[in-house]
Specification:
Blueprint lengths: L1 H14 L3 E5 L8 H6 L4 E3 L4 H13 L3 E7 H6 L2 H9 L6 E5 L17 H5 L6 E3 L4 H11 L6 E5 L19 E5 L4 E6 L3 H12 L5 E6 L1 E2 L4 H8 L4 E9 L4 H11 L5 E7 L10 H7 L4 H12 L10
Parallel strand pairs: 1-2, 1-3, 3-4, 4-6, 5-6, 8-9, 8-11, 11-12
Antiparallel strand pairs: 5-10, 7-9
């Protein structure tokens, strides 16, 4: 979705000269089209992410719409105080672009994993958080949010090929998108791991268990009304995210259940322990942390109490 997002941003920059792009010495073989097209609006600040956000805050104060770009932990975690004290407190239109959600930078190790960014960013009430599930939704989300008056955090994956079946790129701020209907259990998912959830739902359907799958693509605003409508229909909901199980979509759904006195039981499927030094492909790490399609399908069978169905094997 990174390529689709950057392509859309270049199109917007043709229309609006206020758009500028800052990178922390990252994004090579991805950001060059913008840099070559708008050299006077492209700034490589070097490996200085805190300063990058500070520069962007000043540019926003001067009337520009700056996009700052880095890998998720360097875009969201390293300059977090600067994000809070700059664009958030002053309600300025800085756009923070974090690339590589979950385990996408798998072989680079834990320093490059994006497992806590949605949780910390959604804590700031005036920071819009956008977490698309695929490239088409990323582009549409950009088009719907780039001109907001306040700050935005974009949580983007690198994959520009895979699309989530049934999503068709739909994005509406503060709304959730249902990509599959079924009456047995509910999945609520955030981010590109939605592909695994859609596949898990197919595995379950082959064994007679029909699932509703709801994609949530952001916070602040959160799709509370859509969640309330869905949760009222199901006694159990499985939340899924390539993120720590605390802080992200699992926490949002739990908050909605608690705040409105619902009877739904929430099963949070996310990363439940700090990753160790073992690395591998994203698929390997999904399997290791219970986020693969097989793991999710079997977790759904266990948690939903469907004992008559044989467990699904690879």
């Amino acid at each position: 979705m990174r390529g689709a997002f950057l392509s859309g941003m270049a199109e917007l920059a043709e229309l609006d000269p206020r758009i500028v792009f800052l990178t922390g010495d990252l994004g090579f073989m991805a950001v060059e089209p913008f840099a070559m097209r708008f050299p006077d609006r492209f700034i490589n600040v070097g490996v200085a992410e805190q300063n990058m956000v500070g520069v962007a805050t000043g540019l926003a104060e001067a009337g520009f719409i700056p996009f700052v770009y880095s890998i998720v932990p360097f875009a969201a975690l390293r300059p977090y105080e600067f994000i809070r004290n700059g664009p958030v407190v002053h309600r300025l239109p800085v756009r923070i672009v974090g690339i590589g959600t979950g385990f996408e930078y798998s072989h680079n190790g834990v320093s490059h994993y994006g497992l806590e960014d949605a949780g910390i960013m959604r804590l700031q009430p005036d920071l819009t958080v956008v977490a698309p599930a695929d490239k088409d939704q990323a582009r549409n989300a950009l088009m719907a949010t780039w001109s907001l008056p306040g700050p935005v955090y974009y949580r983007l994956g690198k994959d520009d090929r895979t699309v989530v079946p049934g999503l068709h790129g739909r994005y509406r701020p503060g709304r959730a998108e249902v990509i599959r209907e079924g009456g047995d259990l509910l999945f609520v998912v955030m981010g590109s791991v939605a592909v695994e959830v859609a596949a898990a739902a197919e595995l379950l359907a082959a064994r007679g268990v029909e699932s509703t799958v709801m994609v949530v693509a952001g916070f602040n605003p959160a799709p509370v009304d859509d969640l309330l409508h869905a949760l009222a229909r199901f006694p159990i909901v499985l939340t899924v995210e390539a993120h720590y199980a605390v802080g992200g979509i699992g926490s949002l759904v739990s908050e909605v259940v608690a705040d409105h006195g619902l009877g739904s039981r929430v099963v949070r499927c996310g990363v439940e322990r700090t990753p160790d030094g073992v690395t591998g492909s994203q698929d390997y790490l999904y399997e290791r942390h219970g986020l693969s399609r097989l793991s999710l399908a079997n977790r759904a069978l266990i948690e939903s109490g469907v004992r008559s169905v044989v467990m699904i094997a690879s």
